[in-house]
Design brief:
Length: 405
């Protein structure tokens, strides 16, 4: 039996935490160089703190959280998630339909593992949060990427989705609000996606981890709320909205018509039991975290850090010759377009690597999000304004003479 192999199941999958850019960043850090990391959506290193009541809540409950919980989570947490579903108009959710997870990440892997047989296809957005593609691939499936259209505020291109549905397609993934584009999808778009799922008997997976990080008065609609008949799995968590990415606190909720997915749900229950349970101390903060769900965080309003940083980076990018960007409406990412012809960019990963070596700024190339053309990259705009200003100046300086060799 051959155990060692040079290739891995993930060889053809992009993942932004691996690859030559990260290898170079690690080398530079080991050599004592200071780099500015604009590559990962982790609020804590940028002086964002978790709300005090959350920390108190977890600390006070540590003694209650020593043992395994029910594999889907403690009742108190699931009751709070149920109320959140009611607030989001997701109908008919019972406690049994709710699974807590070690972050949304664990649950993304779980739903694909339980669903896919070799060769099954899943429609995944391009650009995507790359864990989705990786999880489909690891489960033996094929991620088929549908285009989100920059010219249409980065909304999914419904016709492209429709064209890519085959008899092997099992599900559609949407990321709304979106990482990396910051787009929030309007109801009309969601209705068309739901209709595609309905017509083709597909499962909907909706990643809504940024649904409490909205700006400009935009409202978020859960696709499950407008498609109560379509079997939908909705994902959410506290990593971003409560700045506790390290606590690994997420959940998923099943809704819609379950009559044809009984076997799949049994599989999910089995997978949920196999990992015993999610991090129990984190489950204790869910009730507190979800108590003020209709209150907009001050950080997202004019004068607040995320809002002002978004305004700055959006204007700065659009004022650099050869760059342009759609204004993000949610989360803390922007996905600028770079004029590949002007800078002779044939390889976007090399562009990001060149910037890292010369200016010590770490970004992720568009290909890291399964964007095919070498003409985009993502900036995480979590650092404070003065840091972002310096980064924008350095990028402008770098691009004033850049021609890819
Ligand atoms: N989904 C999206 C769209 C994300 O951007 C992220 C993290 O960046 C995750 C899921 C993973 O979140 P968690 O920390 O809950 O695992």
């Amino acid at each position: 039996m051959k155990v060692y192999s040079k290739s891995s199941k993930l060889d053809n999958v992009c993942y932004d935490i691996r690859g030559p850019v990260m290898d170079e960043a690690d080398r530079m850090i080991a050599a004592g160089e200071k780099i500015l990391k604009l590559n990962i959506g982790n609020p804590a290193p940028f002086a964002f703190c978790a709300p005090e009541d959350i920390i108190r809540n977890m600390t006070e409950n540590l003694c209650n959280a020593e043992g395994y919980s029910d594999s889907k989570g403690i009742e108190e947490a699931r009751l709070a998630i149920k109320s959140y579903c009611e607030y989001k108009n997701i109908q008919g959710v019972e406690l049994n339909d709710i699974y807590t997870g070690n972050g949304v990440s664990e649950l993304i892997a779980m739903v694909m593992q339980g669903l896919l047989n070799n060769g099954d296809e899943v429609l995944v957005p391009a650009p995507d949060y790359p864990l989705w593609t990786a999880s489909v691939t690891l489960a033996g499936g094929k991620a088929v990427h549908y285009i989100c259209d920059e010219k249409a505020d980065w909304y999914p291109d419904i016709e492209d989705m429709r064209r890519k549905i085959t008899d092997k397609t099992k599900a559609i993934v949407i990321i709304n609000p979106n990482n990396p584009t910051g787009a929030v999808y309007p109801k009309e778009i969601l209705e068309q996606i739901a209709q595609l799922a309905r017509e083709n008997e597909l499962i909907l997976f909706s990643d809504e981890i940024y649904d409490r990080l909205l700006m400009d008065g935009v409202k978020h609609t859960s696709i499950a709320s407008i498609a109560p008949d379509v079997f939908t799995v909705t994902f959410n968590g506290l990593s971003k909205s409560h700045m506790v990415a390290g606590f690994r606190c997420g959940w998923m909720v099943l809704s819609g018509d379950k009559s044809r997915v009984g076997g799949y749900i049994e599989g999910l229950n089995m997978l949920s039991s196999m990992r015993l349970c999610s991090n129990v101390p984190s489950q204790y903060i869910i009730k507190t975290a979800l108590k003020d769900f209709d209150k907009t965080d001050k950080l997202l309003l004019p004068g607040g850090r995320i809002y002002e940083q978004r305004e700055f980076i959006y204007n700065a990018i659009n004022s650099i010759d050869g760059l342009s960007a759609v204004k993000p409406k949610a989360a803390f990412y922007i996905f600028p377009k770079i004029d590949a012809e002007k800078f002779n960019i044939k390889d976007d990963e090399k562009f990001v690597l060149d910037l890292l070596k010369e200016k010590k700024i770490l970004l992720v190339h568009g290909g890291g999000f399964h964007w095919e053309k070498p003409d985009h990259f993502r900036i995480v705009y979590l650092p404070e304004l003065k840091v972002l200003k310096k980064a924008a100046e350095e990028m402008s300086d770098f691009l004033s003479s850049y021609k890819q060799q």
